[in-house]
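Practice problem 4.
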């Protein structure tokens, strides 16, 4: 039996940790690094962590990470660091209106998300982290969930990634309680590896209070969601022939299609 601190939680943030290739990865926000351990919590090395720790200059804070089950890449959701009491106290001398504006700026930065494609075996360090989604733009052109997506998960065969779109919708729907599930096919021939998003759907009950659990099935590949009273199943094998589209990086980043 061994133990080690992981998933340290503050008021508004929890440090992510995960298991990959029988190794335990723990993200340390204080140093913006990934630590790796074996099953006895003995410190070990892994190319994923070594590449992240070497290439994360300017990286703010890890919110989520989803690692492809077969290919050497991950999708990482970056957020801003949550403002500390010390940072907020700098505005104490300001009038109430200006103080609120200043503090809201820090909170807005903390909520600003960027989705990165992270390829740890990419020899060119400048190409290891590639931005895919942010408020500045989206690889899917007009479709951009901006800061309102979460819970990325790959299918067991690695052919799909599903996430929750929490974008504001009409009516009285609380999107955090009833998000739309989006599936994206994985295409190895695509330089950015992601194809065209497919809208799966959401809970059909108006009084849904949030997904209670999700899972995958195989043969067929299907995504499962339970809203606490009903179970929903989306068969992704029916989209096998879906056409892939050429996607572009956000403005200001190199276009990998122009070699």
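Answer key:
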């Amino acid at each position: 039996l061994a133990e080690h601190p992981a998933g340290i939680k503050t008021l508004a943030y929890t440090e992510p940790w995960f298991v990959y290739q029988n190794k335990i990865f723990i993200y340390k926000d204080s140093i913006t690094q990934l630590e790796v351990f074996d099953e006895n919590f003995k410190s070990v090395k892994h190319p994923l962590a070594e590449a992240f720790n070497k290439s994360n200059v300017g990286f703010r804070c890890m919110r989520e990470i989803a690692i492809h089950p077969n290919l050497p890449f991950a999708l990482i959701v970056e957020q801003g660091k949550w403002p500390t009491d010390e940072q907020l106290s700098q505005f104490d001398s300001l009038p109430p209106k200006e103080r609120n504006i200043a503090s809201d700026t820090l909170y807005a930065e903390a909520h600003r998300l960027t989705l990165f494609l992270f390829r740890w075996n990419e020899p060119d360090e400048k190409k290891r982290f590639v931005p895919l989604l942010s408020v500045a733009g989206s690889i899917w052109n007009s479709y951009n969930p901006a800061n309102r997506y979460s819970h990325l998960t790959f299918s067991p065969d690695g052919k799909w990634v599903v996430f929750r779109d929490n974008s504001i919708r009409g009516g009285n729907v609380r999107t955090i309680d009833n998000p739309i599930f989006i599936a994206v096919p994985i295409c190895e021939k695509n330089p950015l590896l992601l194809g065209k998003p497919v809208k799966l759907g959401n809970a059909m009950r108006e009084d849904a209070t949030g997904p209670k659990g999700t899972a995958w099935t195989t043969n067929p590949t299907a995504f499962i969601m339970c809203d606490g009273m009903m179970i929903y199943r989306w068969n992704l094998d029916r989209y096998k022939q879906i056409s892939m589209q050429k996607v572009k990086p956000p403005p200001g980043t190199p276009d990998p299609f122009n070699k």
